[in-house]
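Extended Data, panel c. Modelled sequence:
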Amino acid sequence: MKKIISGILTLAVLVSMAGCSKTEQVNDSVDREVIYQVSLLQGLTFGDYHGSVSAGELKKKGDTGIGTFDGLNGELIMVDGVIYRAPGEGVVEEVKDEETIPFSNVTFFDADETWSIENVADFDALREILDAKVSEFGENRFYMIRIDGEFNSINARSEYAQEEPYEPLAKVLEHDQTFFDYENIKGTIVGLYCPPYMSDLNATGWHLHFVSEDRTKGGHVLNMNIKTANIGWDNTNGFEMLVPENEMFADFDLTIDQSEDIKKVETKVEE
């Protein structure tokens, strides 16, 4: 997959897996078993923060997901069909349908399994629980999860809106990200798992965003301590991607290895 598609049309890739148990659809034009991705994370990492799809259009592709906004203006959390922004300033807001989005992953969430967890010490401990399920179902599928519960702590981050000319994402996060430490808080974590073969299109493994129950706090999850929670798990076998049409994206050399920069933007950068 080293030669990334450089065209400007919508790329639809449907990954067909044996043993898929769910085929239900809302109607003939909406497949609930698809992860819909706007652009590549690698494009965002290079600095393409130009919105290419509206929030209103994104809602037609899913009701649950994660992402960011035009100009890198905060973290996107979609829950129950509502899109929220967790901005660098810290106060979560509901986003209007006209807002545009440069990168996102969404799906229509239908839990294949649900179970309860408690006393999960940190992200590493949660990852062990989630990875055990990945091993059970297969690491080459996509999974969207929703964790609703009480958290002893959540460590999250967001970033401030950028102005052109845009810097690469890792550079932006050296000076324009904010960290939030929440304690004794109820809320929802939305998480995406991407399989290893997605390494040229997204971050592989788990990527989590949080929004509080009162929808006032949130961000990209760096760490957490879970008191008690319920996990909903959605096996998703389809993948569809929108390739941006802007000139900035068209000129990127997407064969460049960005694994180190992606590791930086997915974890806390120490000052």
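Residues 159 and 177 are 4 Å apart (CA to CA). This feature is highlighted in the accompanying rendering.
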